UniProtKB/TrEMBL annotation:
Biological source species: Candidatus Sulfurimonas marisnigri
Molecular function terms, GO-annotated: DNA binding
Protein name: Helix-turn-helix transcriptional regulator
Segments crossing the lipid bilayer: none
Coiled coil: none
SUPFAM superfamilies (alphabetical): lambda repressor-like DNA-binding domains (SSF47413)
Domain HTH cro/C1-type: 23-77
InterPro entries, sorted: Cro/C1-type_HTH (IPR001387), Lambda_DNA-bd_dom_sf (IPR010982)
A Pfam family recorded for this sequence: HTH_3
Highest rank taxon of the organism: Bacteria
Length: 97
């Protein structure tokens, strides 16, 4: 079994945050509108979690509520995550990299 590094986890959270931001913008929703739609009182969490600032990230409850607010599948937030892990495995398995 391949070990998951902190770098892998950081990449996961950055990818999810970026996907949330892109989907939010595509729906024409501001960070504040999204925050209020998921029951937050301020934009703080949304603004830092979208860019994974200071290791702040969305939890599964946030992602579930965001998927409802944006009318998207929760799996949309994970777009690109599989590709990142596949690339990491290929680099690990290829001694030329």
């Amino acid at each position: 079994m391949q070990e998951v590094s902190q770098s892998d986890i950081d990449t996961l959270y950055r990818t999810i945050g970026t996907n949330v931001m892109c989907l939010r913008k595509a729906k024409g929703m501001s960070q504040l509108e999204l925050a209020l739609a998921i029951g937050l009182k301020s934009v703080g969490l949304v603004s830092v979690a979208e860019i994974y600032h200071n290791k702040k990230h969305f939890n599964i409850e946030h992602l579930y509520k965001i998927s409802i607010a944006l009318d998207v599948k929760i799996s949309d937030f994970f777009e690109g995550v599989v590709d990142i892990k596949r690339i990491c495995r290929e680099v690990d398995n290829n001694s030329d990299c």
